[in-house]
Design brief:
Strand order of the largest sheet of chain A: 1-2-3-4
Shape of chain B: elongated
Number of strands of chain A: 4
Largest interface: A-B, 31 and 32 residues
CATH class of the largest domain in chain A: Alpha Beta
Structural class of chain B: mainly alpha
Number of domains of chain B: 1
Order of helices and strands of chain B: HHHHHH
Shape of chain A: flat
Helix content of chain A: 55-70%
Helix content of chain B: 55-70%
CATH topology of the largest domain in chain A: rbstp2171
Largest sheet of chain A: 4 strands, antiparallel
Number of domains of chain A: 2
Radius of gyration of chain B: 23 Å
Structural class of chain A: alpha+beta
Order of helices and strands of chain A: HHEEHHHHHEEHH
Oligomer: heterodimer
Strand content of chain B: under 5%
């Protein structure tokens, strides 16, 4: 009998992986610590509550001395980090990306070598753009706007995460009864759930 | 492009989902999702790709563009490039069409424009009040 390694088995499984469930309902599920969890798309009321919390948070952060984005950009410029210049660079790369994409679109199916060259260039540009975007995001992270935005998603995570308590009855309950309880949770669950919330809502 | 995006696109161009999309467009009672409202970001993106692939398959069937092929649709990178090219092409064609239309309008509205203005009795301004 031929020996088959695990990677080959997974590769075979992936071929048939038509994961319809990721789009069939407005929720996403995951496992953590032997339990099943799900994130349900927040309703209008929950979104409004989260937005109000975000505004309160923003006001509090500004009061406590967190910088506003426009002021922070000026401070960064004095420290030789020019956000506007980085944004200009992004726009320049984007133009280049469009030109290369048009060239690639005009290739025939048979022109594999030409396409491979263009693909390499496109990969390079995309990777440069990603680096610049990450640099911008990292530098703007201390601003009140960025912090308040993060809190907004944390609040939604607390509102929308449910745990399966009875499999037979398909009974689900909220993981954190209140925002305070969510804040007290020191496990990795809030972070895992946060990632799922962002991909479900913001995608 | 991340794995989730690849998965969504693969599903959206699959025959099963394209058929369901056609059915839901033609007869309203076929629903695509378990929920009928409060769509998630993933579902909205999926709907976008369903319509994009539906449009591309329709154009492929009509042989509208020599650069569009089944291979282009099946390859995410090539498909993205084609969509950028298509967008630019349509922008150009639309601008050209508007230019021609304006010239036609001017001619139809004031067939004797040149003659009259030359006499100094009448002048006209071409104002296009339609939406862009």
């Amino acid at each position: 009998m031929n020996s088959v390694n695990e990677e080959e088995i997974f590769e075979e499984l992936r071929k048939d992986d038509n994961d319809d469930e990721i789009i069939q309902s407005n929720q996403t599920s995951f496992s953590y610590g032997g339990k099943n969890y799900r994130i349900i798309m927040p309703n209008q009321f929950q979104l409004t509550k989260a937005k109000q919390y975000k505004y309160r948070c923003f006001a509090q952060l500004v009061k406590e001395g967190s910088p506003l984005q426009k002021n922070w950009i000026k401070t960064l410029k004095e420290q030789d980090v020019d956000i506007e210049q980085l944004r200009d660079e992004l726009r320049r790369y984007h133009k280049e990306l469009v030109q290369l994409s048009i060239s690639e679109a005009k290739t025939k199916d048979s022109e594999k070598k030409t396409r491979a060259k263009l693909d390499t260039k496109l990969d390079e540009i995309e990777s440069k753009m990603k680096k610049i975007s990450d640099k911008i995001a990292d530098n703007l992270a201390p601003t009140a706007e960025a912090q308040a935005n993060e809190e907004y998603y944390r609040y939604l995570t607390a509102e929308c995460t449910e745990v399966l308590v009875d499999e037979k009855e398909d009974k689900w309950e909220r993981v954190w009864d209140s925002w305070k309880e969510h804040q007290k949770d020191q496990s990795n669950l809030p972070y895992m759930a946060l990632g799922k919330v962002v991909s479900l809502i913001y995608y | 492009m991340d794995m989730l995006d690849k998965k969504i696109r693969k599903l959206a161009r699959s025959q099963k989902w394209q058929n369901l999309y056609q059915a839901s467009k033609n007869c309203g009672f076929v629903s695509l999702f378990n929920n009928s409202h409060n769509y998630s970001g993933l579902q909205i993106k999926f709907l976008y790709y369903l319509s994009v692939y539906d449009m591309l398959y329709a154009e492929l069937a009509k042989h509208e563009d020599p650069f569009l092929s089944e291979q282009v649709i099946q390859n995410d990178r090539r498909c993205d490039c084609y969509l950028i090219y298509r967008n630019k092409k349509h922008d150009y064609l639309w601008k050209q069409y508007r230019k021609d239309e304006r010239a036609r309008d001017l001619k139809n509205r004031n067939p004797n424009r040149r003659k009259r203005t030359s006499k100094g009795k009448q002048t006209s301004i071409n104002v296009d009040l339609r939406r862009e």
